[in-house]
Design goal:
single chain, four-stranded antiparallel β-sheet, 5 helices, alpha+beta
């Protein structure tokens, strides 16, 4: 991985995206989305993660994050490790998951091609962090992140999407996660 895609200044805000291997549409069920939400809550409460915006799409996650007392690389690494283990277990045990065998096969196949894995690989290894050095960059990424569900056709209005911080930004309601910088 080149220097372009690494966290350099952990005190700055970053836009981060990470996706499932082969862009598998895992996050089409609430049970899987809730695992990511719970992990983000844990990182906020216990690891110093400051979450400024977020959105879980069917195959990937977008975040605008910062930290005052942590290492963003470590936080994201630990979160991805934890969620991958829990998501793989949940998928493999979910007898109502019609794509269970196919998904587990795809995760196992991806894991076989990467020596960093024991057996399965859930997330792609990269995070593509982009340092948000100006307000204009922040605003552009914030709009992109919040309009992603609208552009995909999932909702008619960004605040209607449950797994996003759009409700926090565009209404007087609170979403599922604590958003830094908003009162």
């Amino acid at each position: 991985m080149g220097r372009k895609y690494k966290f350099h200044d952990h005190q700055k805000l970053h836009f981060v995206s990470f996706a499932t291997v082969n862009w598998i549409d895992v996050f089409v069920r609430r049970i899987y989305c809730d695992i990511v939400v719970d992990s983000l809550k844990y990182c906020i409460e216990n690891k110093g993660l400051e979450l400024y915006a977020w959105c879980i799409m069917s195959s990937h996650v977008h975040l605008i994050i910062g930290t005052k007392n942590g290492n963003l690389s470590d936080i994201i690494r630990d979160m991805k490790r934890h969620t991958s283990k829990l998501l793989l277990k949940t998928i493999s045990e979910n007898m109502q998951e019609s794509r269970r065998e196919w998904m587990m096969h795809m995760f196992e196949r991806a894991g076989a091609y990467n020596s960093n894995n024991e057996k399965y690989q859930f997330w792609q290894q990269n995070n593509h962090p982009i340092e948000l050095s100006t307000q204009a960059m922040f605003d552009q990424r914030l709009d992109y992140l919040h309009y992603n569900p609208f552009e995909s056709g999932a909702v008619a209005h960004p605040p209607d999407y449950l797994y996003s911080s759009a409700i926090d930004y565009y209404t007087d309601q609170k979403g599922l996660l604590q958003i830094a910088g908003l009162s």
